[in-house]
Amino acid sequence: MTMQTLAFEAKQLCRTQHSGVLSTQSTSMPGYPFGSIVPFVTTHTGDVIIYISDIALHTRNIKADSKVSLTVFDPSEDDSQANGRVTIMGDASQLTDDAEIALCSEQYFQLFPQARAYQQTHDFHFYKISVARVRFIGGFGKIHWINPEFWQTESQEWQRNTAGMIEHMNDDHQDAMQLILAHFANVQTSKVTMLSVFAEGAHYQSAEGKIVFIPFANACHSPTEVRQALVAQTKACRDALAETAE
């Protein structure tokens, strides 16, 4: 298995989960790590974005020492030791560029719409964790370090303009998205909204508010490959329905 494949699988796990354990260097207990639960999103290029308050202990710790780690795992699994988890080690810094803030906030608020209310306060800011190294455990015996050159990817033009792709799916392919959510996530709903699309898959939200990430079989590097992946998923759903009906 190549490093690119391992990074692809690790990113899919990160996109499936919406919160992780952020470990910072404690300022009140020097030498000890301080763990806290934070929502996060992973950008197209592999950076991690968190939205945190100035008064939070982890933010104070970051301002004193930017070295952090974020551990991501599936808490619903019975045997956590036998299932996948990812630890992202890196340096956290507050975003100050308006264009970067706008891009990251759009992606973040798509997955965490309730966080928009925090904009009314003046002490919440976006921080980016620039990845130094990743530890990926894909299950028993599948343990790897992933270096930045395999984790980080170059930003592509289509990734900066996914709004049209998402709008098209929401306007014209409601039936296909309902099939995808039912088949791959066992979520039955009267309406589906695509929230985001990445090289690794797409986020959907049901009418009841449940947000689910459905991974692609392979990494997509262009709008054409994304369309092909969605067509393949829809076909798999319809084939499964046909087999059930027989």
UniProtKB/TrEMBL annotation:
GO cellular component terms, semicolon-separated: cytoplasm
Any coiled-coil regions, as ranges: none
Gene3D superfamilies in the cross-refs: Electron Transport, Fmn-binding Protein, Chain A, PNP-oxidase-like
Domain DUF2470, residue spans: 163-232
InterPro entries per UniProt: CREG_beta-barrel (IPR055343), DUF2470 (IPR019595), Haem_oxidase_HugZ-like_sf (IPR037119), Split_barrel_FMN-bd (IPR012349)
Chain ranges of the CREG-like beta-barrel domain: 4-151
Domain of life: Bacteria
PANTHER family assigned to the protein according to its UniProt record, in alphabetical order: CELLULAR REPRESSOR OF E1A-STIMULATED GENES, ISOFORM A, CREG1 PROTEIN
The protein's name: Uncharacterized protein
